[in-house]
Amino acid sequence: MPINGLSHRLHLFWQYSITLLIGALIALHVMQPVQADEEAHGNRFIVLCYHDVQDELPDHAPRYTIKTSDLLMQLLWLREHGYQAVSLQQILDAQLGKSSLPDKAVLLTFDDGYKSFYTKVFPILKLFNDPAVLSLVGSWMEKDTTGRITTGDEHNAQDYQRSNLMSWTDVREVAASPLVEIASHSFDLHHGILANPQGNMQPAATTHFYEPATGQYESDAHYLERIRLDLMKNSSLIKQHIGKAPRAMVWPYGAYNAVVSEIAKTSGMSMSFNLNDGVNTVSSHAANYDRILMLQDMNMSDFINSLSGKLFRPARIVQIDLDYVYDPDPQQQERNLSMLLDRIKQLDISAVYLQAFSDTDGDNAAETLYFPNRHMPMRADLFNRVAWQLRTRSGVRVYAWLPVFAFHLPRENPAAADVVQSASEKSDRPQFRLSPFSGRVRQTIAEIYEDLAKNAPVAGILFHDDALLSDYEDASPAALSYYQNTWHLPASITEIRQDPALMEKWTASKIEFIDQFTNDLTAVFRKWQPAIKTARNIYARVILDPDSESWFAQSFPRFLENYDYTAIMAMPYMEDAQNPSEWLQNLVAKVKEIPGALEKTIFELQSKNWKTSEPVPSQELAEQIRLVHSLGARNFGYYPDDFIRNQPEFDIIFPVFSLRAAP
Fold it and tell me: Who contacts 306 (Cβ-Cβ below 8 Å, separation ≥6)?
């Protein structure tokens, strides 16, 4: 009895302390200058992701450990500005159409089962009467009290004692409250597994394990069974201890794909959560929802802005040839990679467009690939390694840069013979591309994209500049048959070109066809990486002279509709511009004519003059960057970057290009 009495008095003291702290925070809150977005969201909701909560932050605390006072400040702000904490059940009911969510609904989630949820967060939830979701990692919970837990990857490993987590007794107590829903955080997927020959460790839930002894990757069947058994094991464990199985899956590191989400659904967890920033909309078929990660370095302004999901972040892009990194000597290759990583980190940019194919002869087509795949030779298993290192060491988003049509397939592949043909009488051979009107070509290319999606985690795809058809293309048998049978056009390009109405229909149909094919490739990729963004190269002439749409089968307004970013090849020397500055001014002015286009457009300048095979002087490139920025361009980049020869020169380009120096 004395012990229980002491516990009760301590609990009352803790609630009293919170009340005093709330009073102080309200006073502080009144002085906050940041304005809220008061827009009602209807059946929309946001999800906040918390981890450990401490009164004072210890030295070297992980970024996701926040102070108790910050949590209170955030919950108070939400309450004062009309946000309402909702339960998992309320969201499920809204999914089923049984009820609607309140305006400005917010779901609070706490990952990993830290002891602080029981000692600090749970009393606060009871004080506010706010529901929350607590997700548990089964293998961590099953360790004895002296055990240690290691999580993270080779660049951000965390190690702590089992005693930092709740006990099952603690879990049962909070689970008995109507405020707390227990979710699965996997049994043993909250760690990295070997993902490539070079030794990188990547999230276990989305990575096909690399087996060094055989040099092979885990099969799809083995991967899916590994995930299924893990999720079932954790659900059974939670049910054993609290009497009911979890209804939600919280993916470790936020890493998931459509395949594992489906496994979670069939395992009884109809709702899953990731770590992609954004505002969610209730949908009866939705399986995965975005969460906003709460970090200790977020001030109140950052917190408030994160809630809208409308943050615009300017893009600074460098397009990298992986051919510059590759070397048959593994040690030299690692030295090349280190030079690249250091340069990109020091540049402080937002993203890298990273070549996933090799084009050693410069014909703008893939000869070999830098990832394991079903259809083409692999020059080296290198893309995964470089993309992961750029993401984790240099802090940039990586887009996989791949051709759309231009793949030199091995001769034994039946699709290799289905190439784009020209009806022009000119002797010039057209740029090599496979014909997208061939069904076996489309299937082969889709499988190449899928193989990359399974092999390497990326932030997006850059569709190469080969996705074009001239006003004489495609004259291949497959294309002519498609025109006649699907578009009801003559099976003759000569006949089409003689009739302006037919020519207009043919051009529009080709534009739509190519756009749809890239969208199909995106859908294939998103099966394995649902959150990827898309970018596509477009020729500047299409923007400067809309009549030239028929020369390329490209349309700038349609690009803006179909892709997250349109990467304009803003390359005056490639276009034989007599006055590069004036040419760039005209290009930016044309883009600005379309409302909202600047935010979705990347001006990609050239750092090499391919007609002279000489680099563009770094000072000249810097002046061009400064010019497009001053004209209102929000996003820009350049290609290529020769990090081995320091071209363009770092000291010249940094002041005008880096997000740190020129945001």
Answer: 277, 292, 298
How far apart (Å, rounded) are the C-alpha atoms in residues 604 and 646? 19
Angle, vertex CA 650, rays to CA 646 and CA 653, nearest 5: 125
Q: 105, 109, 110, 111: which is closest to 85 by C-alpha?
A: 105
Peptide bond into 648 cis (omega under 30): yes
In angstroms, the Cα distances linking 112 to 132, 145, 166, 389, 586 are: 13, 16, 9, 26, 54
Read off the pLDDT of residues 369-381 as tens digits, 9 standing for 90 and up.
Answer: 999 999 999 999 9
Q: How many residues can be counted in the chain?
A: 663
> Are 436 and 514 spatial neighbours (Cβ–Cβ below 8 Å)?
yes
Sign of the C-alpha dihedral, residues 497, 499, 500, 506? negative
Q: Which of 545, 534, 422 is nearest to 474 (CA)?
A: 422
CA dist 242 and 247 (Å) reads 13
Residue whose structure tokens are 């502080």: 28
Structural domains of the chain, with CATH: 32-187+247-262+269-308 (3.20.20.370), 316-657 (3.20.20.80)
Q: Is 509 helix (H, G, I), strand (E, B) or coil?
A: helix
Tokens of 408: 């030199």
Is pTM beyond 0.85? Reply is yes
DSSP state of 434: B
Residue 4 amino acid letter: N
pLDDT digits (tens, 9 = 90+) for 51-100: 999 999 887 788 889 999 999 999 999 999 999 999 999 999 998 889 99
